[in-house]
Design brief:
about 180 residues, mainly beta, 5-stranded antiparallel β-sheet, about 10% helix, elongated
Length: about 180
């Protein structure tokens, strides 16, 4: 079955006035608008490392956790870093638990990295390619999430002294 093309189309008053016939064009317009909203509805959560973060190397549960209220799919991961350190690279991992009592495991088959010598401020997202970054890769894209699932941030490596203000943005949409 074909999907009505997604369009941002406003319902016109003459097509819905009392005692006027309802036409296919109005229903197609409404269907296109609903599909537009479904395609453009997204949410995000940001795990933040405000200030100097070199001491976060090897830490788990950085900046708390995030719990999903309903089923969703994660489709984008963006790592950022504002002020570089003097050497090395920063690497982060996002771990997922299906709910209370379930173990955590990475949602990434490749963890994002930003090198100190990448032009800053810097970010890297799925699909990016530069010699001074490593783009994240979801283990399943989009990554399915159940209602009540948890996310957490672990820092697997940090740049040398001086690195400040980094984080990771998770973009998701309800399903």
């Amino acid at each position: 079955m074909a999907i009505v093309p997604a369009t941002k189309k406003y319902v016109q008053l003459p097509s819905v006035e009392t005692r006027q016939p309802v036409g296919e064009s109005m229903l197609q317009g409404m269907g296109g608008s609903v599909n537009f909203l479904l395609n453009s509805t997204e949410f995000q959560h940001t795990f933040k490392l405000n200030g100097p973060y070199k001491s976060a190397n090897g830490k788990t549960y950085v900046d708390g956790t995030f719990i999903f209220d309903y089923a969703a799919e994660i489709y984008e991961v963006i790592m950022y870093n504002f002020i570089p350190g003097l050497s090395g690279f920063t690497e982060m991992d996002i771990l997922y638990s299906g709910g209370t009592g379930s173990p955590f495991g990475s949602i990434l088959s490749v963890k994002p990295e930003i090198s100190f010598n990448d032009p800053h401020p810097s970010y890297v997202k799925i699909g990016d390619s530069r010699p001074t970054v490593q783009a994240p890769v979801l283990s399943i894209n989009p990554f399915p999430v159940t209602a009540g699932a948890w996310l957490r941030l672990d820092i697997t490596n940090t740049q040398g002294s001086g690195c400040k203000n980094a984080g990771i943005i998770i973009k998701w949409r309800p399903i």
